TrEMBL record:
This is HAD family hydrolase. InterPro entries: HAD-like_hydrolase_sf, HAD-like_sf, HAD-SF_hydro_IA, HAD_sf, PGP-like_dom2. It comes from the Bacteria. Keywords: Hydrolase. The keyword Lyase does not apply. GO terms for molecular function: hydrolase activity. It comes from Streptomyces ziwulingensis.
């Protein structure tokens, strides 16, 4: 039977979370908002509009949302040609594909950003499909991105594992009914990931690869 390994990308396979924090901080600063970096870090992983709403509140001037998102995109885009993959990321995906897993990415990134992330990982030969922000109406923590990834893989939830690094990932995977593995390389505390639904924790993709036989991806 087919099995699906679904992966978040930012902070899970590519070391970008703190780049997002800095560039969102600058986008907010340019628009006259003082948002602490620790609050931004905890919101990373949400789609842009949801991240802005989470940090500025529902009573904000929503007319600024598009400009804030565009500013972040422009600032973050300066790093597209040098995004660093996390240790073992590409090797992990290739090992899973070689072991018969269908590898699917589920990410809030889309367009040129997603292309830059895939180039950083360098394992397109192992990736069957991508459920991006362009493909769904609601991002994480909605289960929709994970469910769409399962549809692309043609695999039921009970035959899938979702790997991510934020509480939004763990909540999305849990709501979709899949087993969740949390990685600590995104900077989120292990206790928070467990509370959100992570069944097991690893430091980074390399650590998961090293213990693959003892993990939910065995």
């Amino acid at each position: 039977m087919e099995r699906a390994a679904v992966f978040d990308v930012d902070g899970t396979l590519v070391d970008t979370n703190h780049l997002h924090v800095v560039t969102w901080w600058e986008a907010f600063r340019q628009a006259g908002h003082r948002v602490p970096t620790h609050a931004i870090h905890r919101a990373v992983g949400l789609p842009s509009t949801d991240l802005v709403a989470h940090l500025l509140g529902e009573d904000r001037d929503t007319g600024q949302d598009a400009a804030l998102s565009a500013a972040h995109t422009a600032l973050y885009g300066q790093y597209f040609d040098r995004l660093p993959a996390l240790p073992g990321a590409g090797d992990l995906l290739r090992e899973l594909a070689g072991n018969g897993w269908t590898v699917v990415l589920a990410t809030s990134a889309g367009g040129a950003e997603l292309g830059a992330l895939r180039r950083a990982i360098g394992a397109d030969d192992a990736i069957t499909a991508t459920a991006s922000a362009d493909d769904v109406d609601s991002g994480k923590p909605s289960p929709e991105p994970v469910r769409h990834a399962l549809e692309l893989a043609g695999v039921p939830a009970e035959r899938a594992v979702f790997v991510g690094d934020t509480v939004w990932d763990m909540r999305a995977g849990s709501r979709a009914g899949v087993r969740c593995v949390g990685l600590l390389c995104g900077g989120v505390a292990g206790a928070d990931l467990r509370d959100a639904g992570a069944q097991t924790l690893y430091d980074d993709p390399a650590a998961l690869l090293a213990d693959l036989a003892g993990s939910p991806l065995a």
